[in-house]
Amino acid sequence: MHKLIIADDHSIFRSGLRKALEEKLDIEVIQELKSTTEVESVLPETDCDGLILDLSMNNINSLYLVKKLKKMKPNLKIIILTMHDSKYFFNQAMADGANGYILKTDEHANIIEAVKKVLNGGSYASKELLDTLLDDMNHGKAGNVGIQVLTPREKEILRMVALGETSNAIGQALDISPRTVENHRNNIRKKLDLVDLADMVKFAKMNELV
Q1: Ranges of H-type helices in 9-107
Q2: Of 13, 92, 98, 162, which is most buried with the most CB atoms under 10 A?
Q3: Which residues are within 8 A (CB) of 134 and not within 5 positions of it... i.e. 6 or more apart?
Q4: Nearest by Cα to 78 from 184, 24, 5, 151
Q5: Average pLDDT over residues 186-194
């Protein structure tokens, strides 16, 4: 029997997922965690085969945990389960060592299939997300993921943010108000489905803006 931990900040969702998995698969959910802090505290001391990890818990991006946990426990199977259908998040999670990436909007049967496949040594990605990636490849967009949605001004602001410039400094350099810079930053995050400053910096580096 596989031992599994579910990390998600919505208790009703955790309970429903636990019930579905334990009914359909040979799985024991040994812990339910609700924050990145709990994950970092519990995982190092817990013997488990897999972790289902929500990417955004209590408004904190938990993507950084993937690489950290895989370094600590190379055999741990990590399945990202999230609302974020962002190609950026998918690429980053898989590059950091995640074994699966599924969306909360996927059918229950698909989520169960994903968990089963990953725990048995395979990998899995949401069909909806794969379809989008394949469509982009067919249209020649497989390179700089998402960068094409930004305006030249937004790219420049993202580059300066990644270099550590404040909104005041960016405003002075571009002759716009700090408030306008903040509006641009918010628009950039919305367009790219990024959560925080760390995501913006990672995205800028991945797309060679810095």
Answers
A1: 11-24, 36-42, 64-72, 87-95
A2: 98
A3: none
A4: 5
A5: 85
Bridge pairing between strands 60-61 and 56-57:
antiparallel
Q: What is the pLDDT of residues 6-47, one digit of tens each?
A: 999 999 999 999 999 999 999 999 999 999 999 999 999 999
Closest residue by Cα to residue 39 from 84, 78, 92, 91:
78
User: Residue 159 class from Cβ within 10 Å (0-12 exposed, 13-18 middle, 19+ buried)?
Assistant: middle
The secondary structure of 31-44 as a DSSP string is EEE-SHHHHHHHGG
Q: Among 158, 156, 144, which residue's Cα sits nearest to residue 190?
A: 158
Listed in sequence order, the residues at least 6 apart from 87 whose beta carbon sits closer than 8 Å to its beta carbon are: 129, 132, 133, 136, 145, 146
Q: pLDDT by residue (tens digit) across 131-143?
A: 766 665 555 444 4
Helices (H) and strands (E) in the chain, counts: 10, 8
In whole angstroms, what is the distance from residue 205 CA to residue 161 CA? 11
DSSP state letters, 96-136:
TT-SEEEETTS-HHHHHHHHHHHHTT--EE-HHHHHHHHHH
CA 45 vs. chain centroid, Å, equals 24
**Whether 101 contacts 123, CB under 8 Å:** no
